[in-house]
């Protein structure tokens, strides 16, 4: 099953959703998750257009954090810590390019690692993830080769790849995140509960005659048998 996970690094509800999608990835071995960029506020001019000023963003967005923290299964948001910080709320541009650079370097697994690390830096550690020095410090703590990542981050083609994602979601009428595009035809909107996501994916799989898990399905209990354990032949 093909799932495109549409999100923004600065999106509060994408934080709990990413945690749930990790569980989906663990539970179903025949699911392919790819990542698509969405910019809630690409640059300061976008914030000014939406909120009147860059300074007005944080007080408004911290209200969103309150709701997202209730949505989050782990309640990880450090809201008061962020309120005390003196930097203005981060824009989407550089964090999205950073995650895309990781994806171009190491594939979807690397993209996801950096995406999650940047979100944790913002929502839990209250770092200004629009600051490239902060981004670089986050990358150094991941499994990526920093110098190779930095080359990708500074390559104009990486920003263009992000822009292609933004064009894609705009063309397909996606105007909120998180969102899941399933099999190019189904849309799951918002940070739904884990059980709802799983139930919906299972319904789609049945409708499309797809398997969420491949391999043998166990029927009945285990009978008596002989097996190899730690190099030894053991029988029931």
Notable traits:
236 residues; alpha+beta; Glutaredoxin; four-stranded mixed beta sheet; two-stranded antiparallel ribbon; 10 helices; globular
What does this molecule look like?
Strands 2-1-3-4 form a 4-stranded mixed beta sheet, sandwiched between helices. A two-stranded antiparallel sheet has the order 5-6. It has one domain: Glutaredoxin (3-Layer(aba) Sandwich), CATH 3.40.30.10. Helix 5 (93-106) runs antiparallel to helix 6 (108-123), helix 5 crosses helix 8 (146-154) and helix 5 (93-106) packs across helix 9 (156-171). The protein has helices spanning 14-27, 44-51, 57-71, 79-84, 93-106, 108-123, 132-140, 146-154, 156-171, 194-207; strands spanning 2-7, 32-37, 179-182, 186-189, 226-229, 232-235. Strand 1, helix 1 and strand 2 (32-37) form a beta-alpha-beta unit. By secondary structure, it is an alpha+beta fold. 51% of the residues lie in helices and 12% in strands.
Strand order across the biggest sheet? Answer: 2-1-3-4
Catalogue the unreliable spans.
Answer: none
Helix count equals 10
Strand content: 5-15%
SSE order, as H and E? EHEHHHHHHHHEEHEE
Cα distance spanning the termini: 38 Å
Indicate the multimeric state: single chain
- Main beta sheet strand tally, sense and closure: 4 strands, mixed
The secondary structure category is alpha+beta
Give the number of DSSP strands.
Answer: 6
CATH topology tier name: Glutaredoxin
Overall geometry comes to: globular
Protein name: DsbA family protein
GO molecular function, one term: oxidoreductase activity
Domain DSBA-like thioredoxin: 3-201
Keywords: Disulfide bond, Oxidoreductase, Redox-active center, Signal
């Amino acid at each position: 099953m093909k799932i495109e996970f549409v999100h923004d690094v600065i999106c509060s509800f994408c934080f709990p959703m990413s945690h749930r999608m990790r569980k989906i990835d663990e539970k179903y071995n025949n699911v392919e998750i790819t990542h698509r960029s969405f910019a809630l506020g690409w640059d300061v001019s976008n914030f000014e257009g939406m909120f009147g000023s860059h300074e007005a963003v944080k007080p408004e967005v911290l209200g969103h954090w309150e709701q997202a923290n209730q949505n989050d299964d782990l309640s990880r948001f450090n809201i008061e810590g962020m309120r005390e910080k003196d930097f203005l709320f981060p824009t989407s541009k550089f964090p999205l390019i950073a995650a895309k650079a990781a994806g171009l370097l190491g594939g979807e697994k690397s993209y996801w690692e950096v995406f999650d690390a940047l979100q944790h830096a913002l929502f839990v550690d209250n770092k200004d993830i629009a600051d490239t020095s902060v981004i670089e410090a986050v990358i150094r703590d991941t499994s990526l080769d920093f110098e190779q990542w930095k080359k990708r981050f500074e390559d104009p083609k990486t920003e263009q790849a992000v822009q292609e994602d933004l064009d894609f979601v705009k063309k397909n009428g996606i105007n909120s995140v998180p969102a899941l595009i399933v099999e190019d035809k189904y849309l799951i909107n918002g940070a739904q509960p884990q059980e709802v996501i799983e139930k919906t994916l299972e319904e789609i799989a049945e409708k499309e005659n797809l398997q969420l898990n491949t391999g043998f399905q166990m029927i009945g209990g285990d009978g008596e048998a002989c097996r190899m354990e730690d190099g030894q032949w053991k029988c029931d």
